[in-house]
């Protein structure tokens, strides 16, 4: 990790969209990243110019087209509504720029396919921050080194609803579109590509989304609609055939190793030694240091750093690329189409 002022190799970036989310989350994270923010493009010029002044950016444009034509950029960060992502990304690719998109990448699979076709050899990634959370990275490590044994199932809890409809419904800006990609991206990063999706609805379109993965793992996304946002509401439990791992509200990872057990014979839940029981990782929050900050615990730093490192090394991203975004878009559409029946991913186009 470094600070922007200390990096010698930086990516010259332009930013499209400096609204509330970008101003609150993306721009502050640039302090820790190898970038030079060269220009800003936003239709609303008053806050854009004030933001440009704050960050020492000399040029501010009303459109991405003007910025692409006028500036010598390596990459662009696009942080607008997903309905606008495809046209802006394709325009950037045509200008020879590498592209980072805020999540979600688009509203439909077809739009992601258009971006993939226009990308060519350029580098593109999407801001699925849950993929890069330290908690997710730790659980991926536990899966990869077989600490959990063979991965079997995953249970996710997130306060969402999934409406029933078709492609027109998929294009609407809903919580399922805007925030459903958070738990879905985490599940795919742990369990791999999906092959089928089934939605079971309870009252008010809450319920459960079942994702059947190509490797036989089953993910259960419990739609805990109605749970208050003012309390920990996001949890993931990953079940292997030897142990489990839990992510609680993004900031706590518990590796449940179990204990020596003899039914009817075990007399202590805390047997001698340190080879059993739970291991817990969580921020200590005693110091004002980086690992405690939300930019890091929530994966914002990780997603941006990964994209920028790929640009600097001229390496195609393996994580959170457009192909991964296509899988998430397919799940988004399939879940809307499903009414307690499985929709196969191959049928979403």
Written overview of the protein:
There is one protein chain. This protein has helices at 20-29, 45-54, 64-70, 85-94, 109-119, 134-144, 167-170, 175-178, 181-191, 294-297, 300-313, 322-337; strands spanning 11-16, 35-41, 59-61, 75-78, 98-102, 124-127, 151-158, 194-201, 207-213, 218-223, 235-240, 244-248, 252-256, 278-281, 343-344. The two termini are 40 Å apart. It has twelve helices and 15 strands. With 349 residues, it is α/β, with parallel strands linked by helices. A nine-stranded mixed β-sheet has the order 14-13-12-11-7-10-9-8-15, with helices on one face. Strands 3-2-1-4-5-6 form a six-stranded parallel β-sheet, with helices on both faces. A hairpin with a 5-residue loop joins strand 8 (194-201) and strand 9 (207-213).
Question: Could you name the key traits of this structure?
Answer:
single chain; 349 residues; alpha/beta; 9-stranded mixed sheet; 6-stranded parallel sheet; 12 helices; 15 strands; globular
> Spans with pLDDT under 50 lasting ≥5 residues?
none
Share of helix among residues? 25-40%
List SSEs in N-to-C order: EHEHEHEHEHEHEHHHEEEEEEEHHHE
- Could you say which structural class the secondary elements and strand pairing correspond to? alpha/beta
Q: What's the story with the biggest beta sheet?
A: 9 strands, mixed
Principal-axes shape call: globular
Strand content: 15-25%
Report a brief summary of the structure.
With 349 residues, this protein is α/β, with parallel strands linked by helices. It has helices spanning 20-29, 45-54, 64-70, 85-94, 109-119, 134-144, 167-170, 175-178, 181-191, 294-297, 300-313, 322-337; strands at residues 11-16, 35-41, 59-61, 75-78, 98-102, 124-127, 151-158, 194-201, 207-213, 218-223, 235-240, 244-248, 252-256, 278-281, 343-344.
